[in-house]
Here is the input.
Amino acid sequence: MYHDSINLKNLNKEYKGSSPELILRMTIEEMFKNKIAYVCSFGTESAVILHMISQIDSNFPVILINTNFLFKETIEYKNHLLQKLKLKNCKEIFPNNSDLVKNDKYGDLWKSNPDLCCNIRKVIPLKKELRNYQAWISGRKSFHKGERKLLKIFEVLNQKVVVNPLAFVNKSFIDSYFDFHKISKHPLFTKGYLSIGCINCTIKSSNVNDPRSGRWTNNIKTECGIHYSYKK
Ligand code: SF4
Here is the structure.
């Protein structure tokens, strides 16, 4: 549980305009020392925060939610980045087998009930893993539109502080960061995938100004649920 003395309103005011690096360093080394992790999709822009973390602590915990439906390119990219950035503490978490047997025996739940599929493959495993932490880092950005337009640097969700160091950066910041640090892109990025999740629910983005336009295109769904309050 996050500490009641943390005043989010003041924190957001204080760190508005601060660099992502400063926000990360302060939360990792001071505010949530040993009680914070980065929840990383190893998608198209994840390398930015991974690179920043590698400059602070190569042993910092990174969590990948492996739904068993990730692109093989995502796993290869994860292995490449971890090695390149010398990050030593990445943990993959998986859906609970009993949840799969009960709700998704044939692996096709995503077609009929994607919310439940995301719940058992992403939300529940992350909830369990986050018991070990007071706070977590997310790579969301407001320029990704949708609900993300309202992002703040610090939020509270399900009794945890969520730190969004990239909340206010723009696309050119991301592009320049990759170029300046010579970081390789996700192999699917050059094929037109601007935001990458599970194989079943990701296609090429239809609008370059809307990176998430290739996610859940046959559904009104726009988010997987890890950024929502837990259902009672
Ligand atoms: S993104 Fe699709 S396949 Fe992946 S967990 Fe959610 S509904 Fe299931």
Q: What stands out?
A: Residues 8-214 form a domain with the Rossmann fold fold (CATH 3.40.50.620). The chain has eight helices and six strands. The mean pLDDT is 91.
